[in-house]
Amino acid sequence: MDYTKIKQYPTQLSNVFKRFPLPMGFGIFSALYSMFLARTIDIQGFVHDHPKFFIWVITFSALSIFLTTTCKLMQEAKDISPKTGWIITGVSEAVLLALTAGYIANGDLDNLHFIAQSVVWSAIVVLSPLIVPFFKDKDDFPLWNFIGKSTKSFLTSTIITLLFYGAMAALAACASILLLPFHELFFFDMGAISICIVFPILYFASLPNLNEPNENSEVSRYFSNTIHFLFIPVLIVYIFFVYAYAIQVRDLETLGFMALAAVISTILICGILYPGHFKDNFDKAFLKSVPWVTIPLTFISAWGISDIFTDAGPNAHCVTFYIITALIWLLASLIILLVDRIKKKIWWTLASLVITAVIFTFSPLNAFKLSQYTYLHYNSHKNVQWVQDSIARAQSLEEEALITNSIKYFEFGKSYVNTVAVPPNRSTMAMLDTYLNYEQVALQGDTIFFKELPDGNGDTLHITFGIPLSLLKGEDEEKETPKFITLDNGFQTLVLTHAYFKICELDSIRSRGSLKGYWFFK
Fold this sequence. Notes:
Elements: H1 3-19, H2 21-40, H3 46-49, H4 51-77, H5 82-106, H6 112-131, H7 141-178, H8 184-205, H9 221-248, H10 252-273, H11 281-306, H12 314-338, H13 345-362, H14 367-378, H15 380-406, E1 407-412, E2 428-436, E3 441-444, E4 447-452, E5 463-468, E6 473-474, E7 485-488, E8 493-504, E9 512-521
Antiparallel strand pairs: 1-6, 1-8, 2-9, 3-4, 4-5, 7-8, 8-9
């Protein structure tokens, strides 16, 4: 076993704390603070009465890790003296302390605009290590090398941290079986220690020192071949596939996300190729041609994705504006790749992201105000139509109420009469059980007239009879009616045992009637 590397671990650990004392200090504080909150969050008291205070503490601690890291990297990159570096760090921390305290104290945690602003300025602090230390560089070599090494360090540290937490959790689970069971907060504490302490130590231990010279280093041959012989051919085929799909326009939503994936992939691959491989003729052709082909896809993506939220509410319109903002930034990133005078293409890509986010979140014409304006403007015709429909519905309901109130009901008889006398001069009888429609019933004065066919032989000649209202009982009346009513027109005689009429004076088409009884003929 090689004990030499093991002996180097304490030195590497101490170097991390010497190089990044403040980021590690805030990391340790964040771990302890998380453990404290986990134990007091369910206790009624100060935590529940002052939630903004605890949110501010954890926010300030987390952002301070990135801000102090930025100050240390800037000190290394610009060869700033330790005393000046501490002054810059102290002033930066004081500004962050005041901004976070005032912003969270006066903010509404349920307001979407406040949440969006919080996310944006937090993202600015998180991205500051990639922007501030490389502000005055003439090219992208230092930033490109730093991003590559930082990415490798991040992935390695993440894997080791996960393995460490898994091993500790498995060890605790085995120990809980043999001994007393561990409290569930133990696993939370191990997670806090792994994220806030173990991961930063591993990450900072392999983070490149900006005092070292940054030359035009190249990626490994394996990774270079993967980019050239796998990702680039797939990207080119995929771009042509998106254009073919756009010609058919089967689904705007799907088309929008497909175009967005093509744009993001193009920017990532171009960022990897530039500036590390800019001397290669194929890479030169790729960097000059593919961004031009991809630019129209940003507009296609905006067309497809924004169509999802066209008829939605103001919050969804705000999401649309942020999507369009992101597409504007992607379009600007493609243009940056094509402009020869811009030597710091990667730096300006990151800086333009920050600038775009600030403009569309903190400016007077922010995404929320624009979304409210467009929602009211483009949906005003819908509001007018809704008002017109509401008026029409109200008028219709009013007319319906008037018509309903004008309906009157008349009836007599509740059961069949078993025997009736045959009227004089009548020899033929037929049972009567018929339904009368609106064309057969009418109220004239104090008499209801109805028309009925004399028989069922196809004769279209209607016979008219009239029933005085005095023989019928109204809807709200309580009076006795005869057991049957005899009606005679000289040719036929009707003996009615039951009659029911629904008369609507304002809308005669709603009038109805039904009759039961006997029909006598000569």
